[in-house]
Design brief:
Low-confidence stretches of chain A: none
Oligomer: heterodimer
Helix content of chain B: 55-70%
Radius of gyration of chain A: 22 Å
Number of helices of chain B: 6
Number of helices of chain A: 10
Structural class of chain A: alpha/beta
Order of helices and strands of chain A: EHEHEHHHEHEEEEHEEEEEEHHEEH
Largest sheet of chain B: 2 strands, parallel
Radius of gyration of chain B: 19 Å
Number of strands of chain B: 2
Number of strands of chain A: 16
Structural class of chain B: mainly alpha
Strand content of chain B: under 5%
Mean pLDDT of chain B: 83
CATH architecture of chain A: 3-Layer(bba) Sandwich
Strand order of the largest sheet of chain B: 1-2
Largest interface: A-B, 38 and 32 residues
Strand content of chain A: 15-25%
Distance between the termini of chain B: 82 Å
Low-confidence stretches of chain B: none
Mean pLDDT of chain A: 95
CATH class of chain A: Alpha Beta
Helix content of chain A: 10-25%
Shape of chain A: globular
Number of domains of chain A: 1
Distance between the termini of chain A: 26 Å
CATH topology of chain A: FAD/NAD(P)-binding domain
Chain lengths: 484, 147
């Protein structure tokens, strides 16, 4: 049996939810939309009770050829919005123009200025907390006031007024109606007071729209095409293979499963699935003398931009620093044991941008095509050169902080920011989707999310993912896509 | 020469036996208690609470049992190790483990909730679990937002 819809949206995370919201604002009152979600709708209560974000394990759906590299995402209604830590920074203007400004990597096919109003829209919907000042141009203030700095952040801000900022975050700094104030528990993936934005607590309404039919536990197998048109999808539900057709097919199933579905569908491209990447995360723990940390008002209390934009990007990766404010989180903070000095410590994460490598890829597992196979052979030399500068960076921070010693420097296993496998660009020969995230050849197929990112900014990808979904939905109705 | 070899063999066998004997007799809980008694020797720790915390921590399996038991085996050597000597990768790893245990214990106790008063006996209140929100303050050092 086949049902026909105006649109089929695959995935209910940030990319799918923001697209659906804007699409429904623009679509006719009689439009019909089918939303397919692979997982269940696991309530917050269920998540806290079971200490996990989803009843569906990612490990059951992938083959990781390099287990030392961890890939983290959450499946089910709301996707990774159930597990994220609320980092809602915009990308910097230079992130969009790495090649033209610094002669490395490739430029994005759109600019910061083109996305700016969409960034503002997303910040309003998410009720993002942030400072009055900002390292990038903004046309409107943050909806919520900033969180409180920790003492190390205060010293860094005093020394580097244009390099250290309160973070842009969805960990609420004031009650929002659906979220309470962050209590700095350090367990954002399972926030006990639901202070962080999620699709379930902040953007669930589009899914309840009478024009929408939502099908949970529906695993999309393939996008079906005829010539240069997407006809619909096939999906498995209740153990049965089903089909649905639509005028528009929207994949928003993550940077792991967007390419996996396309590859299984025979929609090939030389770059499809390749360029799998994340930022390079490095955790740096410093012992301080006489200054106490962990005393801000949220789990992450500072963002350092002093090693971000600049001519160094010609040679090595840019870096965004975050200050961790939790003494509890297993590998990201602990108290000191010396008498009276328990919190004389600063714990930072340094996130370096990466230039994607073609040998890092998502493929279809030969033995079981339903599994996505992941190969990761390492970060780029560019990112590595950035990391090698950490001792010099710490010396710079030490001009503001009384650093006694470096307790540890360690590369973390994941940022949970998977990107790059369905790259966007203006040239169909070097990209899979165009600047509006529409497939170059199949013009009624949109492929949303961080899979489209040409390069990994040091900034968190979520705000950009969400802004791009609004941007893509808007442009479907302004004639840039040929199907409307 | 032969006697020297015999002596070496006997010594190695004896040492192996000693380590094995100590390992068999070791326990995760003893190692946790040893860490807390050593690193928090400046505090008055409630003995029953110390044992209860050690049992609760072991039950949650958040620390490597093998590492804890090795620490217990190395007890006499470990007890003499000062914090300042922790300069290489191995000793830094030991310190990281110690800090995790001390952090969990102090956050599970009333120590910070009562103003970090070192003259009071530190009481274990129940295993620290910010997810289940058993404690009124998830991060006792966090300060509220000010206008």
């Amino acid at each position: 049996m086949t049902d026909h819809y105006d649109a089929i949206v695959v995935g209910t995370g940030f990319a799918g939810a923001f697209f659906l919201m804007r699409y429904l604002e623009r679509a006719s009152p009689t439009a019909r939309v089918l939303v397919l979600e692979r997982g269940k709708r696991d309530s917050k209560g269920w998540q806290l009770q079971n200490r996990r974000n989803s009843s569906l394990n990612l490990e059951q759906l992938i083959v990781n050829n390099n287990p030392e590299k961890e890939w983290l995402m959450s499946l089910g209604f709301g996707g990774s919005s159930n597990a994220w830590w609320g980092g809602a920074a915009r990308m910097m203007p230079g992130d969009f123009q790495l090649q033209s400004r610094y002669g490395v990597g490739i430029d994005w096919p759109l600019s910061y200025e083109e996305l700016e109003t969409y960034y503002g829209d997303v910040e309003a919907i998410m009720a993002v907390s942030g400072p009055a000042d900002s390292p990038m141009p903004r046309s409107r203030p943050f909806p919520l006031r900033p969180h409180r700095f920790s003492d190390p952040d205060t010293l860094l801000k005093k020394k580097f007024p244009d390099g250290w900022y309160h973070p842009a975050t969805t960990r609420a700094s004031a009650p929002t109606g659906s979220r309470s104030v962050c209590r700095a528990a350090g367990t954002c993936e399972l926030c006990p007071v639901d202070a962080n934005f999620s699709i379930d607590n902040g953007l669930h309404r589009p899914f309840a729209d009478p024009r929408v039919t939502m099908q949970l536990q529906a695993a999309v197998e393939e996008v079906e095409t005829i010539g240069d048109l997407a006809r619909g999808v096939s999906y498995t539900s209740d153990g049965q293979l089903r089909r649905a057709t639509a005028d528009l097919v929207v994949l928003a199933a993550s940077a792991l499963f967007n390419p996996h579905i396309l590859l299984r569908s025979g929609i090939t491209h030389g770059l499809l699935g390749k360029r799998l990447h994340e930022q390079m995360p490095v955790d740096v723990c410093l012992n301080l003398g006489g200054v106490k940390g962990y005393n801000g008002s949220s789990t992450i209390t500072g963002n350092g931009y002093l090693f971000y934009e600049g001519e160094h990007r010609r040679q090595r990766a840019a870096c965004l620093i975050e200050t961790w404010n939790s003494p509890f989180n297993y590998n990201r903070g602990a108290l000191r044991t010396e008498r009276g000095r328990w919190t004389e410590r600063a714990y930072f994460r340094f996130m370096f941008d990466d230039l994607p490598r073609a040998d890092n890829a998502v493929t279809v597992n030969a033995a079981n095509p339903r599994l996505a196979e992941l190969t990761f052979n390492g970060y780029s030399d560019y990112a590595q050169r950035g990391m090698n500068r950490i001792p010099a960076m710490v010396n710079t921070l030490a001009t503001a902080l009384p650093v006694e010693s470096i307790e540890s420097i360690s590369v973390a296993r994941s940022t949970s920011h998977i990107q790059g496998t369905v790259v966007m660009g203006n040239d169909p020969a070097t990209s899979v989707v165009d600047r509006h995230l529409i497939h170059h050849r199949i013009r009624n197929l949109a492929i949303l999310g961080a899979s489209a990112f040409p390069t990994a900014s040091p900034a968190y990808p979520t705000l950009t993912i969400s802004a791009l979904s609004l941007w893509a939905a808007d442009h479907l109705f302004t004639g840039s896509a040929s199907y409307v | 020469m032969f006697k020297r070899r015999q002596f070496l063999a006997a010594f190695i066998a004896g040492l192996t036996g000693l380590v094995t004997w100590r390992f068999i007799g070791s326990s995760d809980e003893n190692a946790i208690i040893a860490v807390l008694q050593k690193r928090l020797d400046y505090l008055l720790l409630d003995d029953n609470g110390l044992h209860a915390f050690a049992r609760d921590l072991v039950a949650r399996k958040v620390m490597s049992s093998n590492k804890l038991r090795m620490l217990d085996v190395a007890g006499p050597v470990y007890a003499q190790l000062p914090v300042t000597s922790y300069g290489n990768a191995l000793t830094r790893a030991v310190r990281h483990g110690e800090e995790r245990i001390v952090t969990l214990y102090l956050l599970s106790s009333d120590f910070f909730l009562t103003g970090a008063d070192e003259t009071r006996i530190v009481r274990y209140q129940g295993y620290y679990d910010p997810i289940r929100n058993l404690h009124p303050i998830s991060n006792p050092f966090a300060r509220p937002i000010t206008n």
